[in-house]
Write a structure and sequence with these properties.
It is an enzyme of class 6 (ligase). This protein has helices at residues 4-11, 15-26, 39-53, 69-75, 84-90, 158-170, 219-224, 238-251, 283-294, 300-315, 325-341, 349-359, 381-388, 393-403; strands at 30-34, 58-62, 147-151, 172-174, 179-181, 187-193, 197-198, 204-205, 227-230, 267-268, 272-273, 319-321, 365-366. The protein has 408 residues and is α/β, with parallel strands linked by helices. Strand 10 and strand 11 form a beta hairpin.
Length: 408
């Protein structure tokens, strides 16, 4: 069981921070949806969460229909590529089948370290030069950011989304000159905008958890994401609001300084956390929670309850798809990950319901009236349209949870 200090820090987190923490615990990735006019604020909040809450570097990938594979790959990297000729000289091709084309082992998951001169004399005794050399002069290795924020990923071409799926599956990205491995702590967040649908009167209807109308993720990529979260702007952006309060205090000339650091200056250029600032959750904290989640027990009645929820979702008349074996695996994983955050070493029915809401929110695809299964039996199209009107994934999940009896 986690200690009280760690649990207290968990309870102080916002919903967005919890979504990121759960993904890091499971080493999976998440989808976060918000109205279009709040998307920029969401991305800024996620930047601050990356650096302040977890002490991780970040990169923002702005996707649109013209995004190319090269644009996507280079946006993930922190640094500036060196000329190709130097890259070929410093990373010669090896004849060994156990090395990549760049001669670098594929399990290089660690962040760059400043190059140090060789302690031994003679030619060839020093460490090889880095593929990246920043303006400052010290050489560092090219590497993928710990947190990748893909804004409007659903608008990217299919080829780019397939490349994103390969990155999530293999934890590697190929560029023209080398192969880059993702760091050990790696989180990919798809930040999507959804402004709902307009009806005949021009009124806009917004439903929590709808599949984004401004661009849809490819089915296999969408299914690979661990959890989905709808963020209502009315719930606020905690870190951005803290920055606003500090800026207001500074503008009044007050000498009072907020405890614990922070502020806009806590994030430096390039998406790196400020040196000397301790994150709320260290890598050891995340590893501790991950270990506890693997030790969580699931009673047979609770497991039966989980499987009944899966079965009812598959049979729901409004569901066109999204109840996949991958979703079921993530369902069980999230149930166990939630238990240590509540100070438990076993899964309760309430945690099962909470996990279902997060795992299936971005996966459930609502069927069109023409393809609803009762149409095969002679149902009227107008009647089916009336039944399905205004139904979103969150409505389906809540209805299933209400129908399936929980174990006592």
């Amino acid at each position: 069981m986690a200690d009280e200090n760690l649990l207290q820090r968990v309870h102080d987190l916002s919903d967005l921070e919890l979504a990121a923490l759960l993904s890091l615990i499971a080493r999976e990735h998440c989808v976060i949806t918000t109205p279009g006019d709040a998307l920029d604020d969401l991305v800024e909040e996620l930047k601050l969460i990356s650096t302040r809450t977890f002490g991780l570097s970040y990169a923002v990938v702005d996707c649109n229909p013209d995004t190319t594979l090269e644009d996507f790959a280079t946006s993930l990297l922190l640094g500036k590529p060196q000329p190709q000729a130097q890259a070929q000289r410093t990373t010669p091709r090896s004849s060994s089948p156990h090395l990549t084309r760049t001669g670098i082992a594929s399990n290089d998951y660690f962040p760059p370290q400043p190059a140090t001169p060789s302690s031994s004399g003679g030619g060839g005794g020093g460490a090889p030069l880095s593929p990246l050399t920043p303006t400052g002069g010290s050489a560092t290795h090219a590497h993928i950011a710990h947190v990748v924020l893909a804004r409007n990923l659903g608008l990217a071409p299919k080829a780019v989304q397939i490349q994103a799926l390969e990155l999530l599956r293999t934890r590697r990205i190929f560029t023209r000159t080398s192969v880059h491995a993702a760091p050990k702590q790696f989180l990919f967040v798809a930040a999507l905008a959804d402004d709902g649908d307009d009806d005949d009167d021009g009124e806009q209807h917004q439903q929590r958890g709808r599949r984004p109308g401004g661009g849809r993720l490819a089915p296999h990529l969408n299914d690979f994401f661990y959890v989905g979260h709808w963020h209502d702007p009315e719930d606020g952006f905690a870190n951005l609001e803290d920055d606003g309060e500090e800026a207001e205090t500074a503008s009044t000339g007050s000498v009072v300084k907020k405890g614990g650091g922070g502020g806009a200056g806590s994030v430096v250029a390039g998406g790196f956390p400020e040196e000397g600032r301790d994150p709320v959750f260290s890598e050891l904290d995340i590893a501790t929670l991950a270990k506890l989640s693997r030790e969580v027990q699931v009673d047979v009645d609770v497991l039966r309850y989980q499987m009944n929820i899966v079965s009812f979702l598959r049979m729901h008349r409004a569901v066109a798809g999204g109840i996949t074996p991958t979703a079921t695996k993530h369902f069980e994983q999230l149930m166990k990950s939630l238990a240590p955050l509540h100070g438990l070493d076993y899964v309760t029915p309430s945690l099962v319901g909470l996990a279902a809401r997060k795992v299936y929110l971005h996966r459930v695809d609502i069927v069109t009236p023409e393809k609803e299964r009762s149409m095969l039996w002679g149902s009227e199209l107008a009647a089916v349209q009336s039944i399905l009107e205004g139904i979103g994934p969150d409505d389906v999940i809540e209805e299933v949870l209400a129908m399936v009896p929980a174990p006592l």
